[in-house]
Amino acid sequence: MTAKAGITTKVVARIRDVPQALWDDKVARGHPFKSAAFLSCLEDSFPERKFGYLIVSQGADVVGLAVITEERLDLSLLLPEQVGTLAQGVRKVLPGFLSLGLGMVGTFETAERHWWYDAQRVSEHDFARALLAACDEVCGNAALLLVRDFMEALPEDVRLESWFLQRGFKQVANHPMAMVTLDGLSSEAHFQRLKKKSRQNLRKKLKDAEALGFQVERVRDFRPLIDECYPLYLQVHEGASEFKRNPFPRAFFETIAERMPTTSSFLTLRDSAGHLIAFILTGTGGGINNPFCIGMDYARTEGTPAYYLMMWKEIEHAAHTGCRVVDLGLTSYFVKQTVGAELEGMTMAARIQSAWLRPLLNPLLPALLSEKQPQERRKFRVSTFDDDSQPPH
């Protein structure tokens, strides 16, 4: 614990030691999959990962919070498949081969800002210093430190990122967020504001899904489905070409079901014979609907409109439950923009931790770590007069 001018800081290792209601309000801001309950699920699912939570206080009041993690980053996930196979063999002799210690403000499973501070009680400078000191405490074995995520459209995020950039960090482009803003719109009204080509495309996809006999159901208590769904999740995980990382263990889904029973659900998709062919783990709460994790049977869904159908059903669910935002997450941006998602840019601040390697390697970080940005497309129609605006059924 440190103290300065009435401000004290400490780092705790478990989310249970953080004021959870304050965390959910200020850091998660109602997002079910950034909540204290969700972070407890991550802690139990990844015991090899080190978690640290910064608590900044003034007297009895908490005036700042953040989450920090440290783990081994498997570099082979970023390389061709044959390199990964080779790495697995070498690791029988050299366990750390093609991996490095990665420290992060944030986690791989959450996005947008991973901190909060009361600007009336603690200065940006003092909070940033406390955050960096906490990173040094938690991430002592890290070769690389990432502070994520700074939203490009938020001036306060830009200012805080600038503090780190002025202290030897390099800006790195992250994947953008795909967000559908409803703000009280029904799914029909949202459909009607899409541009004509998107409406035509989506209507056709949904009619094709109906012709195939696809059946969609939202399941609240999804524990009986986990055995059936988990292999589908692994299919998608193993086939991912972007944002590769270690898979969730099966127990993760069990823990979510137990600790988040009112905010989590499975959206399941079955074929005309009743076979499960896809699912989405979804979080709904705080005005946010987040289709978080997907699984698909590629042999049965390839070439079908399954993904379009499920994305649209998530938007319908969000509108029906009064959510203001649908957080569609990262990747698959073409489909997500077709259903009306806008892309919100995110950046990270990166730094090599070794003082003597930093001058050599830091300048390379933007090229090595920056994600390729997807093409942004027009989502909504320009004219309000259109004879093709009837919503799908």
Q: How is the main sheet built?
A: 9 strands, mixed
Q: Helix count, per DSSP?
A: 14
Radius of gyration: 22 Å
First CA to last CA: what distance? 59 Å
User: Order of SSEs, N→C?
Assistant: EEHHEEHEEHEHEEHHEHHEEEHHEHEEHH
Shape: globular
Helix content: 25-40%
Kindly give the count of domains.
2
Description:
- The protein has helices spanning 20-26, 36-45, 81-90, 124-138, 155-165, 187-193, 196-211, 226-239, 250-259, 298-301, 306-320, 333-338, 358-361, 365-369, and strands at residues 2-4, 7-12, 50-58, 61-74, 99-105, 115-117, 144-151, 170-173, 177-181, 215-219, 264-270, 276-285, 288-296, 325-327, 342-344, 346-352.
- By secondary structure, the protein is of the alpha+beta class.
- The protein has two domains: 7-174 and 346-369; 178-344.
- The strands form two sheets. Strands 1, 2, 3, 4, 5, 6, 7, 8 and 16 form a nine-stranded mixed beta sheet that branches. A seven-stranded mixed beta sheet has the order 10-11-12-13-14-9-15.
- It starts with a strand and ends in a 24-residue tail after the last helix.
- The mean pLDDT is 90.
